[in-house]
Design goal:
Length: 179
């Protein structure tokens, strides 16, 4: 399945990103309602770098959003790259799309002085926990509860934040892209 990686820079790129994000917001690590999706879109455009994967018809089929610095520290910890969102359309999930995207990300951040890569997983997702546990270590656990206006509990979940050295990340990606 051929695809290209676009680094979002202009209104057309951002529009395609927004449409893909909104159309697929239920597929992310946590399902987002419209209000939360818009918030994350704004923060991604304002603070993040967006890699959009497009097929031969210029349709978005995946994305990686990352920032230099973490949102928890107001993006001031510039030695850390934080991967906020990773998603591929289901028909691209068995391809090397993410590996190519992560390779592009590694190339983009190589000269920035970054020392660490962080990403997250739902603590109940055994598949991701096992996969990420092979690559990185858990550095933080977070508990979330989302309530509606009448303070009724709508959702509760635990999340784990994983960390790995940038140099290990770059070697890992390079090794698997070659295969």
């Amino acid at each position: 399945m051929p695809y290209k990686i676009v680094v979002c820079h202009n209104d057309d790129d951002y529009e395609q990103f927004v449409r893909f994000f909104m159309d697929n917001r239920a597929e992310f690590l946590h399902s987002y309602n419209v209000k939360m999706a818009v918030h994350h879109i704004i923060m991604s455009i304002k603070h993040g770098k967006i890699l959009l994967f497009c097929n031969d018809h210029d349709e978005a089929v995946g994305l990686i959003v990352y920032s230099i610095g973490t949102p928890m520290n107001h993006y001031e910890d510039r030695e850390i790259v934080y991967m906020s969102f990773i998603l591929a359309r289901s028909d691209y999930r068995q391809s090397k799309l993410f590996l190519h995207g992560m390779q592009r990300m590694a190339e983009e951040i190589e000269q920035t002085g970054v020392k660490e890569i962080r990403f997250r997983a739902n603590a109940e997702d055994q598949y991701l926990r096992k996969l990420y546990g092979k690559l990185a270590k858990v550095v933080e656990r977070k508990n979330y509860d989302h309530k509606d206006r009448s303070s009724r509990l709508l959702a509760y979940y635990d999340e784990e934040i994983y960390s790995m050295d940038y140099s290990h990340f770059a070697r890992f990606v390079k090794k698997f892209v070659k295969k």
